[in-house]
Write a structure and sequence with these properties.
By secondary structure, the chain is an all-beta fold. The protein has one helix and 37 strands.
């Protein structure tokens, strides 16, 4: 684990952090350095077995399937033309020989893969992958790790310091969402707060069925959604019920929020229902969806699914108890989407956990109880993979799937609270210079300032919030020669107007 930069900026009331996440080298010191998985494998971070102060990646190869692995999409590609070798540190707890493969994908050329065999019981071994030996060249955006591919023998393996020789570059700052803009604490008794929520009851497929093969009816009855003892209960129940002329044997509730927003942090403290065939979800849809019976469809519906974008904050399947997953559905991948990540937690159905989405213009970060399990950050954002620059609304529901246990009678998802945070409005400049231009940006010599207004002074701050320079007497430019390269904030004053510009010195 390396410390490349300070992770906090304090600037008046503006707080943010600079991230070099999801770019090489990967040392798991940043919570965004999360590998996605497939085939039953799982990934998490943990302290090193040889140094408790060092965070490493734990890669678990399960017995569920021979074909499985781990991948991460990088915001800056691996450039084999600059350096054809990648190294990593590998640690195993058993004396067996293991095959550790590195596969580079989504690049200028076809995917390429190198495998190395290693025996590394209770010790770290550095593996060096020289892709020039197989003619590797060009850029690749996805790094995939394959351990003992073709084997269904389970095992946990540790990896650290995946390095292609490049130097991390500070990305634009992520906003800190700490200002509560909307919430429901569910402190009442009886029916839901209809100022906040809408019951969606009309089946979306031909007025008869729901997606995913669900076999329940959603109702607007208090028996299926109600507040009690400080929490919201969404109760899935076995009973005969007729709606829209269709009779089904199970009921539940599906709630739409009457609040929609773009970017922010969502925190939901919830407890999952229990039982094979239950399928609860805390999720979001684009406000512009044209979905039958949805709260926003009549006033905002212009776009069908998946083009409207779907954000699954958390899903849980009763047949896979305690495994929770987050996912994205959009035109680039939907239905059986590849854009997903999850992990096992303890007591998902008997204890409350805090499920969090942090959503900004660059990425989405999903976590449970503060532990990140998935980051969605397409390298190149398009309308196909990033329709997430428009308002989304919340949905809470418990579905019943066809494999519901024969002895199921009822089970509830409990939600203690839902809270949505955005940036503090006090941190945003109230009076700004609308015609302000700062150029060139990036720069390594002079930054010019252009505005019809008279500039009184400017102040330049570094990534720690330290004041680097002040220039007054109606400045029209700032000399930055000799200042270390990196990300800075330029505060520009003109009368009562104040504007902040992000600048990069290279």
């Amino acid at each position: 684990m390396k410390n490349y930069y300070s992770n906090l900026i304090t600037f008046f009331l503006f707080v943010c952090h600079i991230a070099v996440a999801q770019q090489m080298p990967l040392d798991f010191s940043d919570s965004s350095q999360i590998f996605s998985v497939w085939g039953g494998s799982s990934f998490s971070t943990r302290p090193s077995p040889t140094d408790s102060n060092n965070t490493i990646g734990q890669f678990f190869h399960s017995a569920s399937a021979a074909e499985q692995g781990f991948y991460i999409d990088l915001i800056r590609p691996i450039d084999l033309d600059s350096n054809s070798t990648i190294t990593l540190a590998f640690y195993a707890e058993d004396p067996q020989q293991h095959t550790v493969g590195l596969k580079l994908e989504q690049g200028d050329n076809a995917p390429i893969q190198l495998n190395l065999n290693v025996t590394s019981q209770n010790s770290w071994t550095t593996l060096t992958y020289d892709f020039s030996t197989i003619g590797g060249n060009g850029n690749y955006n996805r790094l995939t790790i394959l351990i003992d591919i073709g084997s269904s023998t389970p095992g946990a393996f540790f990896i650290d310091n995946i390095d292609d020789g490049s130097i991390p570059i500070a990305s634009p700052p992520d906003p800190i969402y700490n200002y509560l803009v909307w919430s429901d604490e569910f402190d009442g008794t009886g029916g839901i707060n209809t100022s906040n929520w809408f019951h969606q009851t009309i089946p979306i497929i031909n007025g008869q069925d729901w997606a995913n093969g669900e076999i329940q009816h959603y109702t607007d009855r208090n028996i299926n959604a109600y507040m009690e003892n400080g929490s919201l209960k969404i109760l899935a129940k076995k009973e005969t019920y007729t709606n829209q002329g269709v009779t089904k044997q199970y009921t539940s509730a599906r709630l739409n929020s009457k609040f929609a927003f773009t970017y922010g942090k969502v925190e939901i403290r919830a407890k999952m229902p229990y039982g094979i065939g239950t399928f609860p979800a805390l999720w979001m849809l684009g406000q512009n969806i044209t979905e039958t019976g949805g709260y926003w469809a009549a006033t905002h519906g212009t776009t069908g699914w998946p083009d409207c974008g779907e954000i699954d904050i958390i899903e849980h399947w009763g047949e896979n108890q305690d495994f929770v997953q987050s996912a994205l559905h959009n035109r680039s991948s939907f239905g059986g989407t590849v854009n997903k990540g999850g992990r096992l937690i303890s007591n998902a159905s008997t204890e409350f956990h805090i499920y969090t989405l942090d959503w900004n213009s660059n990425k989405m970060t999903f976590s449970v109880d503060g532990i990140v399990h998935y980051v969605y950050n397409p390298v190149t954002k398009t309308i196909q993979n990033w329709p997430y620059n428009a308002p989304q609304y919340l949905l809470f529901n418990v579905a019943i799937l066809p494999n519901i246990a024969s002895n199921f009678t009822e089970s509830a998802m409990e939600i203690d609270y839902v809270r949505v945070y955005q940036t503090n409005p006090l941190s945003i400049d109230k009076k700004v210079l609308n015609d302000l231009k700062v150029y060139p940006n990036p720069s390594h010599t002079i930054i010019n300032i252009s505005s019809q207004s008279v500039i009184d002074k400017v102040k330049l701050y570094d990534s720690t919030g330290k004041l680097i320079l002040t220039k007054d007497k109606k400045p029209k430019d700032v000399n930055i020669m000799g200042i270390r390269s990196g990300f800075y904030l330029l505060k520009i004053y003109s009368g009562e107007a104040i504007s902040t510009k992000k600048v990069v010195i290279n």
